[in-house]
Amino acid sequence: MTNAVSGMAAALYRDEPEEYVVTAALGSNRDICFVSKNHATNKVEIVVSGNNTALSASASAPKLTINSATNGAGVATSTAAQIVAAVNADAGAFALFEARLPPGSTGAGVTGALSETTAHDGKTFTALALADSGDHKTYQAAKASRYWDATETLTVYKDAVEVTSGFTINYLQGKVTFDASQGASAITATGHRRSGLAFERILLVYDASLKLDGEEIDTSNLDDSGFGSAIIGAKKWTIDANSYFYDGNIPLSDLGDTLFVKLYTILSTDKSWVGYGAALKSDVLVANPKKAQEQSISISGQGEIYPE
């Protein structure tokens, strides 16, 4: 008997609609998302203090204070999963925040300290350094600092001086492209972004196909000597899957909303395609009990999808 693994898989995530606090992209299964209740701007802090202390969570509205467990040397020992469990089990703490792990995290890593942070609809960034692509025109944020919020104000700076024109912004890619070379200048940005640590996974889709279309615009005219001519106009993409997994945690009514779509390689977490889309149609067949369940879903892109 042999086992085969497909090279690609896809997942749909919901962007957290409530205000939240996320840890600083610590990696290694250490991160936590704290979701504030009822759109309140509550505060959360993780304290690492003392030797041989026990993990505890206490609330004094609007602040949640978490004391991480420590060892004899005063080093934090509470894992992300343990902190999540402690917060959600304490009635007072849970009245302010619901804690959860980011998609795909086991929570096995030790989180450590978190300075007092106020919940926000997204994550604010200030003077974020953008890397020059090499042409001195295109500058992009690091992978963990993209997904800029297009509904919020974004300010671009050249050598710490605000620039108001002569560039375009790609919010999903976290990228600024100038009309002319900026030489050796330092380019930074200040604004808001969506955090992947706050996303909630809704669906895993399988047996899927990604279709990219570029609709033609006919430009044929008398100068074409009888030949037709066209340019590529609006681009669009869709994902059609013949099966999917839904765990039931999020109402299916949310599937009509805009979702974050990630098409990724199973054997490598470094290669993926990302974009925003909406699940517009799902067909579930009530199968013969002697047959496998059949279900399909269609996802329509809203904007670009690009290799990250």
N-to-C series of helices and strands = EEEEEEHHEEEEEEEEEEEEEEE
Number of strands: 21
Strand arrangement, major sheet: 1-17-18-21-20-19
Helical residues, percent = under 10%
Written overview of the protein:
- The chain has two helices and 21 strands.
- The strands form five sheets. The chain has a six-stranded antiparallel beta barrel with strand order 1-17-18-21-20-19. It has a four-stranded mixed β-sheet with strand order 5-6-4-8. Strands 9-16-12-13 form a four-stranded antiparallel β-sheet, with no helix packed on it.
- By secondary structure, the protein is mostly beta strands.
- The mean pLDDT is 86.
- It has helices spanning 80-89, 91-96; strands spanning 8-14, 20-22, 33-36, 43-47, 56-60, 63-67, 97-100, 114-118, 123-129, 131-132, 138-140, 155-158, 161-163, 167-170, 175-178, 187-193, 200-218, 230-246, 259-265, 272-285, 294-307.
- 5% of the residues lie in helices and 46% in strands.
- It folds into three domains: 18-118; 123-196, no CATH class; 199-307, Beta Barrel (Elongation Factor Tu (Ef-tu), domain 3).
- The two termini are 36 Å apart.
- The radius of gyration is 23 Å and the shape is globular.
Per-chain topology:
Layout: E1 8-14, E2 20-22, E3 33-36, E4 43-47, E5 56-60, E6 63-67, H1 80-89, H2 91-96, E7 97-100, E8 114-118, E9 123-129, E10 131-132, E11 138-140, E12 155-158, E13 161-163, E14 167-170, E15 175-178, E16 187-193, E17 200-218, E18 230-246, E19 259-265, E20 272-285, E21 294-307
Parallel strand pairs: 4-6
Antiparallel strand pairs: 1-17, 1-19, 2-3, 3-7, 4-8, 5-6, 9-16, 10-11, 11-15, 12-13, 12-16, 14-15, 17-18, 18-21, 19-20, 20-21
